[in-house]
Design a protein that fits this description.
The protein is α+β, with helices and mostly antiparallel strands. The chain contains 19 helices and eleven strands. The strands form five sheets. Strands 1-2-3 form a three-stranded antiparallel β-sheet. The chain is globular. The N and C termini lie far apart (82 Å).
Length: 444
């Protein structure tokens, strides 16, 4: 496979020539096309068939213009290469017109991926998903995932991509050849029943159905659902779910054990995990936001009283005041050299969870907790020890529970957590045994 660019001999009114592309996949498959990209002949290198190198003595505007064009051409080349790899029917395109129509569509889809939705018939959901990702990523400016993640097919660092990937993989298991023009309201019922048969709890199934619905809403808006009205009106069976309870949190005594434990000199890894976690317990931060927290977010780097950070998940930016625990941890790390001015050295969520379980076991935090889940109509009562299930998000739950125990109002707690309403905060909210015991002794 070769993809070569060359310059047209014709010039437009601005004395610029259009860049052409020549593609050769085999002796029987060769095709060319216009790219819709224009460049002045003096800015084109005929030897390398690319935009010429930038000279540092040129104006900044000229350098930016050529750099942008070079980048656009590289992206177009990558787009064409992916189209060739993903096209299963290339060898069957023996007719010259078929080959030309194919490359014209490839070029058009580079500038507007949605043209595939109207030009290509009988798309599978899997094929549609690739177009969906391409469009949404451009519309919402998704950030590429880290290279190590891309090797595991996580191409974008965005929640919408993760949600789509989860739905896409399960639908692939349910029906690898699910056609977009065959999706009806009954498909939603089929997917829900499939997830039940797979043993997913009803809350997870609700999330999957919601993600699938969002994707189909987008497809309906683009006019690519043959039975769109039926899909939009259809209501799947309401599944029974237990009331959410914040079972995975630390009691005040357990938090004190965590906070005050003295690690050996050779256990810096565990100490860092403990400090990061306790900071979340004392501030309500999610671990995803803690990973972005910089010293510059604090009102006074030398003696701070608060910090403000835009949440990665919700884009809200509450000001969080420090208490003796969070301030003590800040002072411990404020003078340490870290990447990009972060308050804490980096530590992944997975490694954090592993360390927290190890610390909890060492401290003897073996309190048993339970929760109720449903899968379809089947109920499960799950019991586990805190040391076996503790994870970073327990820090945020710990904050909410202790604030409630100390008499904070729901509205006051939400000024820290950023929840829009009590319903959103309900899974984190509990009146702990301390307050319940006090009320029993005082009022009964």
């Amino acid at each position: 496979m070769t993809i070569n660019f060359e310059l047209s001999k014709k010039q437009d009114a601005n004395k610029k020539s259009q860049i052409l592309v020549r593609i050769s996949v085999s002796r029987s498959f060769r095709v060319g096309c216009k790219t819709k990209l224009y460049v002045s002949p003096k800015d084109w290198d005929d030897k390398t068939n690319s935009v010429r190198k930038i000279s540092k003595i040129e104006s900044v505007e000229k350098q930016q213009e050529l750099a942008k064009l070079r980048d656009e051409l590289a992206k177009l080349g990558s787009h064409i290469e992916k189209a060739i790899i993903g096209e299963r029917e290339l060898e069957k395109m023996t007719d010259k017109k078929d080959r030309q129509d194919w490359i014209d569509l490839v070029i058009e889809s580079f500038y507007d991926p949605c043209v595939k939705l109207t030009r290509i018939k009988n798309l599978t959901f899997d094929e549609f998903s690739k177009i969906y990702v391409e469009v949404r990523s451009k519309e919402e400016h998704w950030k590429p995932a880290k290279k190590s993640h891309r090797n595991r097919k996580k191409y974008w660092d965005h929640p919408s991509f993760d949600k789509l990937s989860a739905v896409q993989s399960k639908l692939q298991e349910m029906n690898p050849m699910l056609m977009m023009d065959k999706i009806t309201g009954a498909t939603l019922d089929e997917y829900q029943n499939f997830l039940i048969s797979e043993g997913y709890n009803n809350k997870t199934i609700e999330n999957h159905m919601s993600y699938f619905g969002q994707i189909l809403d987008w497809a309906y808006e683009k006019g690519y659902l043959k039975y769109g009205s039926d899909v939009m009106k259809h209501k799947v069976k309401k599944l029974k779910t237990a009331k959410p309870t914040p079972f995975n949190y630390l009691t005040w005594d357990e938090f004190q054990l965590f906070y005050n434990y003295k690690f050996d000199e050779l256990e810096k890894d565990l100490e860092l995990a403990r400090d990061r976690f306790c900071f979340c317990c004392a501030t309500s931060l999610r671990h995803s936001d803690l990973a972005l927290l910089k010293k510059a977010h604090f009102d006074n780097p030398d003696d701070p009283s608060s910090f403000t950070i835009v949440s990665k998940k919700t884009d809200d930016a509450p000001t969080i005041f420090l208490n003796e625990y969070s301030k003590s941890i800040y002072m411990k790390y404020k003078d340490r050299e870290t990447e990009k001015g972060l308050l804490f050295p980096k530590k992944s969520n997975q490694k954090m969870n592993k360390c927290l379980k190890k610390i909890a076991r060492r401290l003897g935090i073996t309190r048993e907790v339970s929760k109720t889940e449903y899968c379809g109509n089947d109920r499960s009562d799950i019991t586990a020890k805190i040391c076996d299930i503790i994870a970073t998000h327990a820090g945020r739950r710990t904050f909410v529970v202790h604030c409630a125990e100390e008499g904070w109002t729901e509205e006051m707690i939400r000024t820290y957590t950023g929840h829009e309403d009590f319903k959103a905060m309900r899974p984190y909210f509990a009146i702990g045994d301390k307050k319940r015991r006090m009320f029993m002794e005082k009022h009964f």
